[in-house]
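debug: dumping io for the single-chain case to check the tokenizer round-trip. Nothing else runs in this session.
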Amino acid sequence: MPTISKNKKDKISEHIVSILFDNFPQPLFTSQIAKELARDEEFTKDLLKELNNQHLTIPIQKNPKGKDYKRRIRWRLSNEAHNSLKMNKFL
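debug: decoded output
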């Protein structure tokens, strides 16, 4: 299986952040983000977890009624990341 360079992973991660920024504050399922990127869901989930470790994304594991998802995760941009990107967009 071919590996993806760090540079390409970074660019894909930037695209993920852009997708989440455009949809803020609405959280998106991993599958929705993967479809937008035309990438595998597992690969997308790994990148989302890396972004979470960098405090750029927040996983949401409960539905709007407060029940835990069993196999799905929704993601949204962290407030800090959103504010930072919003300020940069206006500069």
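debug: round-trip ok. The chain is about 55% helix and 10% strand.
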